[in-house]
């Protein structure tokens, strides 16, 4: 009991130190602000998810989810995005230990896997539109294209961002501001993967259940 | 203890002294996360396609797997923990989850209610949500 109390005291002492030390460093503040942006982005996605869930059966006589969705395609997209999230994590480890080659390698792998994901998704969209399942066909398809397309748009923005960060890194090196932006990028990329988990569960797996 | 303790930024790995925070332990964390995520993903796809599970229970199973996988991503990739020095991050996350829950559950309940109470007759049925 005494030991526990003492541990608690030590812990509080440390926390007091932290709060008495003045404002937190910019890295922490920027990370926290970006975290709040990500959460607001997730709130926006929740509205799109709600729209999709409400409209999922409103096919207006058009093609249904079970006829349109290719599970193999969804599984490959999931694998690509998960692996790119992993390589993005390894990239941030390389950033922490300032290994330039490791960062560029991680960024290249992340970019290629993200691009492969986007390529598969665009092909899927193209195939659907080619057989007449365009967004204007039914409320279900409008909701589907909005939700999945919005996620795809985020991935595309993330890819552009990654390229810009690599350009900055090669010109400016591991400056504090570059490291901070790279850190925000990896948060963004992991958050996109979390949203994709929901998409493949709700849209591709639950959507085709009988 | 010469260095000051700060709150941790989201994505930082907290509560690990700089001496222990070398690349290999970080690598281990990400790899464990990847393995868990792969297991949960494969299970999700298996649950959706198997006939070994009572069909009405499948959506609930998928929901549980998805929530578990989001937890894995949060802990192993975004390093959100319940440690005392990441309270702000967890509080922001909790608020976000509350809003997400309100938007999703509110929309679904209201729209289900509308569909039940305002269903028009006959041919108008085709224009409503077809359930």
Give a concise summary.
The complex is a heterodimer of chains A (210) and B (131). Chain A has 210 residues and is mostly helical.
Q: Kindly report the average pLDDT value of chain A.
A: 86
Q: What is the CA-atom radius of gyration of chain A, in angstroms?
A: 22 Å
Largest sheet of chain A: none
Number of helices of chain A: 7
> Span from first to last CA of chain A?
57 Å
Percent strand of chain B: under 5%
CA-based shape of chain B: flat
Share of residues in strands of chain A = under 5%
Outline type of chain A: elongated
Q: Can you give the helix content of chain B as a percent range? A: 55-70%
Low-confidence stretches of chain A: 1-13
What is the number of beta strands of chain B? 0
Q: What helical percentage do the residues of chain A reach?
A: over 70%
Structural class of chain B: mainly alpha
Give a short account of the largest sheet of chain B. Answer: none
Distance between the termini of chain B: 64 Å
Describe this structure in words.
Chain A has 210 residues and is mostly helical. Chain A contains seven helices and no strands. Chain A has one domain: Up-down Bundle (Four Helix Bundle (Hemerythrin (Met), subunit A)). In chain A, helix 2 (26-55) packs antiparallel against helix 6 and helix 4 packs antiparallel against helix 5 (100-130). The N and C termini of chain A lie far apart (57 Å). Chain B is mostly helical. Chain B has two domains: 1-81; 85-131, no CATH class. Chain B has helices at residues 23-49, 58-77, 87-117. The longest helix of chain B has 31 residues, at 87-117. Chains A and B meet through helix 1, helix 2, helix 4 and helix 7 of A and helix 1, helix 2 and helix 3 of B.
């Amino acid at each position: 009991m005494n030991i526990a109390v003492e541990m608690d005291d030590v812990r509080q002492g440390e926390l007091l130190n932290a709060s008495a030390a003045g404002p937190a460093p910019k890295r922490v503040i920027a990370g926290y602000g970006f975290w709040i942006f990500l959460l607001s982005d997730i709130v926006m996605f929740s509205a799109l998810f709600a729209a999709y869930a409400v409209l999922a059966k409103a096919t207006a006589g058009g093609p249904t989810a079970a006829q349109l969705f290719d599970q193999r395609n969804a599984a490959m997209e999931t694998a690509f995005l998960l692996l790119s999230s992993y390589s993005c994590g390894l990239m941030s480890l390389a950033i922490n230990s300032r290994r330039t080659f490791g960062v560029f390698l991680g960024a290249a792998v992340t970019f290629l896997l993200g691009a492969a994901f986007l390529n598969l998704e665009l092909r899927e969209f193209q195939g659907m539109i080619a057989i007449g399942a365009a967004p204007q066909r039914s409320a279900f398809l409008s909701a589907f294209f909005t939700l999945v397309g919005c996620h795809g748009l985020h991935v595309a923005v993330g890819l552009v961002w990654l390229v810009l960060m690599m350009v900055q890194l090669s010109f400016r090196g591991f400056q504090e501001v570059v490291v901070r932006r790279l850190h925000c990028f990896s948060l963004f990329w992991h958050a996109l993967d979390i949203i994709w988990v929901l998409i493949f569960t709700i849209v591709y797996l639950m959507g085709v259940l009988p | 203890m010469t260095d000051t303790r700060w709150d941790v930024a989201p994505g930082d790995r907290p509560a690990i002294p700089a001496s222990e925070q070398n690349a290999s332990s970080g690598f281990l964390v990400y790899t464990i996360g990847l393995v868990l995520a792969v297991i949960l993903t494969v299970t999700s796809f298996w649950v959706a396609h198997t006939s070994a599970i009572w069909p009405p229970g499948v959506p609930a199973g998928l929901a549980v797997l998805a929530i578990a996988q989001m937890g894995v991503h949060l802990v192993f990739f975004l390093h959100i923990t319940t440690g005392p020095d990441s309270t702000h991050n967890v509080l922001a996350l909790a608020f976000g989850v509350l809003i997400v829950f309100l938007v999703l559950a509110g929309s679904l309940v209201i729209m289900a209610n509308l569909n039940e109470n305002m269903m028009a007759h006959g041919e108008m049925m085709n224009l409503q949500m077809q359930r």
